[in-house]
Amino acid sequence: MVVRPRRHPLVPLTILLSVLLIAMFAQTPALTAAAFIGAALYLATAGRTALTWRGILGYLILWLLVAVTNPLFSTGGATPIVFVNGRPYTKEALLYGIHLGGMLISVLLWFRCETFLVSDENRFFLFGRIAPKTALLISSVLRFVPLLRRRADAMRAAQTAVGVYDDPDWLHRTKSTMTTWSALTTWSLEHAIDAGAAMKARGYGLPGRTTYRTCHFTMTDAACIIGILALDAIVITALVAGDLDISYYPSIVTSPVNGRAIAGIIAYAALALTPFFEFLKEEIRWSFYRLKM
Amino acid sequence: MELLSVENVTFRYPNADSDALKGVSLSVSEGQWAVLCGLSGCGKSTLLKLIKREIAPYGQMSGRILFTGKDTRKKSPAEGRNASSSANRGDTTAERSFLSDREAAEGIGIVMQDPEAQIVTDEVWHELAFGLENLGLPSETIRRRVAEMASFFGIEDWYHKKTFELSGGQKQLLNLASTLVMNPRLLLLDEPTAQLDPIAAGEFRNVLTRINRDLGVTILMAEHRLEEVMPLADRIIVMRDREDRALARTDDTAAGTNDGSILFSGTPAEAARYLNAHSHPMAAALPSATRVYFALTGGDIGWGGTLPAGDTAIPFTVRDGRNLLANCLDAAGSRTQSFASSENEGATKADNNRPTVLEARDVRFRYAKQSPDVLSGASLELREGEHYCLLGGNGSGKTTLLSLLAGLTKPYAGSIRLSGKKLSSFGTGELYRGNLALLPQQPRDVFVEKTIREDLENAFLRMNPSRDGSDTSVNAEMTRMCERLRITDILDSHPYDVSGGELQKAALAKVLASRPKVLLLDEPAKGIDVRGKQELAELLDELRDEGLAVISVTHDAEWAAAHADRCGLLFDGEIISEGAPGAFFADNAFYTTAANRMARGIIEGAVVLDDVIRSFRNNDGGAGKHDDPADTEEVTP
To answer: Are B6 and B51 in contact (CB under 8 A)?
Structure first.
């Protein structure tokens, strides 16, 4: 029940943003592969409860679609495989499509990872620091929505039992439905007034409101973030220097492999795989802990 | 020093033609538990809201309210004038001190009736922290105080839950906890247990007792049911109800000289004596033990024995009531006696000959395929003109069964027949026309228009198949119904602006417009004062004489015992016991009326208060004290 991560939520958020931003701007198959493998491994382990075969199939179809259709739009490659309607369907364009699809899927998967990396409560907390008023608003909206749904059900049931919905005349039926909705609006306004009173009764509106923070930022958290930023720096250096460049058209040309490129790839892979390894570490730790008991 | 003092407060809502509160003066000292009692509409809530200035209603107020000696009104530019007028009254300190915003928010906490309406955020932990965030406290302090409160209230288990997942009782406890976490010195409570089931209400009162006794928090509570709060309170303040004030009763010795809102203020024993002596409507809300005591000492029933006088002799709890009864019997020379209600037996016999209107057989229901059964083979039979009370704990499926009987949800197995016809085989527009009607737990759900009149007109028009100009007959019928329910004067009000009891009567008028054979009521006695309950019961009796069959789902054992023909207990998905209230409650040990708990083992078979009192009349004759020969004739063999 209690979800209190051992790391401050800012740490997973930094990893997430680093991996996502680099994956979106880097044109390097090695980095895309790392991003994909990292997300896939993490989802398959930590997020396996939310994983469905339909979901996986959906991602594969999307990937395939992007890969296969790219050559239809782009004919820049030098090595045609077949001709479609007199237009060349090139190997280079297909490979670029595979890369592009992989990048798209990786980004989508990392957004899925976010749900597990940062829990609801922590997301609220992170958000609350930036925009406390909005965060409170979201919290009260989240509170209100299920209430509204329940009231709508109760009202519909009450109106059904009064017989307004089985009126033989459809015009009267439609009118009744609309009146019920407008009554629900009245209730919402009434509820808003009550909620406002309850807020004021507990001192809302006094100057100097604070936001209750449930997480502590420790030195370890700071060290983690510095580490992540250092890895980012290595990758970005390699990217800026052009060591990781690749061009697909007219034929595939990669930059010569050097130390900076290898360091960049390793650094990025480390970033992308951290969530998975962290999860693995926890699992192993827990297994050993249980063994010792 | 008094923690709170209200000085001659008169208040009138805008556009109202009479004062909601008149000449109210009262004071509450530190650590006291004071109860404001009175019928609904007497101004209890208005007074509490005026004390809590953040939610004070708009209107004209005179007089003043002091908290810790400071005026609770916001200091306004017009204060100069007020100061001079107070100087005229002999107030030497021209510059009065006013309560600051922070002092007002922190010092006075309030918990209102509806548990749902007071929760602000979506998670329990955040709700607890909300007030402290508003006070601008640092996270470390908030953490400590929230933790303290959570463990004091025992809510660690649901600390991380979403607020909408909580039960009604948990929600109200959360409201109390998130108010108390701000460390108020005065806690205002506006009928806080009115929407809770008896178990949750009891738990809530236990917590209140703890915070009053262990933490010394002062409590001012508005309540119209005195059975449970009477033994807990230090002081009872009786308020005059509005109609009463309009009549300006003069036979009143204690308050004969004024027509103010407050009739009486004193210890529970004094208040009980006062209510009894003046036959105040609230006397019917006194604890059962107290009412037995007054009946026995009153002399009306011709009981020959004597009881100790004096305020300490007045019993409030079931335990004291039992002692009282035992002593009375000792004096009469017997240890136990039996009582059999002849009326109830007669009623059951008659019922067996009546035709069945509604029948549920082995009804099973669950919300989802994987979830457990809510109902697993519930069966029930309702006869014409019968009032059947369905009792059961929280979440026992009472409301679910009711919505199945109303045809709103379908059972996955079993059958429900109305007049021998399956519910599912009723065509469009048939079931809710002249057959079935349901009054939901929240009567306001029945209303969708701007005024009660429009809603009722629609309902009555719907019954007129032609919907043409022949409105006169429809109107006449509606007028008749409104006069019968005495709601004619609220017809032009918005459904949200009338009291709970009035709205319930109006809702009843609307659902009865379809001239049903069966009326289903969900918690009809919830949150309604003694007078409202009595009116509702009388009305249901009248309707039943005309052949209407009624099922009411309730937590209120007193209501069921007094008004039902048959009661059924729903437990674990089925109706496990059923019978006439006399037999039904006499068999139950806990789920029963206070009168029955009091008389258990002393007066066998007594279920309602009247049974207990009447048994003494019988005993008097039986014990051979021949002071009144008329009484001996009434002895049941």
So the answer is: yes
Q: Measure B445 CA to nearest chain A CA, in Å.
A: 5
Mean pLDDT for the stretch of residues B615-625: 53
The shortest C-alpha distance from A182 to chain B (Å) reads 7
Please indicate whether residue A292 or residue B491 has the higher confidence score (pLDDT): B491
Chain A, nearest residue to B126 by Cα: A212
CB contact under 8 A, A202 and B178: yes
To the nearest whole percent, how much of chain A has pLDDT over 70? 96
The residue of chain B with its CA nearest to that of A179 is: B448
Taking CA atoms, A135 is separated from A120, B179, B287, in Å, by 12, 21, 48
Is there a contact between B431 and A183 if contact means CB atoms under 8 Å apart?
Answer: no
Q: Whose CA is closest to B120, among A194, A92, A239?
A: A194
Q: Closest chain B residue to A140 measured between Cα atoms?
A: B121
Q: Which of B69, B45, B50 is nearest to B60 (CA)?
A: B50
Pick the CATH number of B2-283 from 3.40.50.2000, 3.30.465.10, 3.40.50.300, 3.40.50.1820: 3.40.50.300
Any idea what DSSP says for residue B57?
Answer: P
The reply to whether residue A140 touches residue B121, judged by beta carbons under 8 angstroms, is: yes
With 0-12 CB in 10 A as exposed, 13-18 as middle and 19+ as buried, what is A38? Answer: buried
pTM: 0.82
Give the best residue of A125, A147, A212, A214 to mutate against chain B (max B CB count within 10 A): A212
Q: Do domains B2-283 and B350-592 have the same CATH topology?
A: yes
Cis peptide before A250 (omega within 30 of 0): yes
**Per-residue model confidence (pLDDT) at position B335:** 56
Please answer whether residues B418 and B518 qualify as being in contact, where contact means their C-beta atoms are separated by less than 8 angstroms.
Answer: yes
What's domain B350-592's superfamily in CATH?
P-loop containing nucleotide triphosphate hydrolases (3.40.50.300)
Residues of A in contact with B518 (CB under 8 A): none
- Tally of CA atoms within 13 A in the half-sphere of A57 that contains its CB: 3
Domain ranges of chain B: 2-283, 287-339+606-632, 350-592
Please give the structure tokens belonging to residue A222. Answer: 């700071």
At B64, give phi and psi (nearest 5°).
-145, 160
Q: Both ends of chain A: CA-CA distance in Å?
A: 23
CB contact under 8 A, B459 and A162: yes
CB contact under 8 A, A198 and B117: yes
Biggest CA-to-CA distance, chain B: 81
Q: What is the bridge-based pairing of β-strands B603-604 and B337-338?
A: parallel
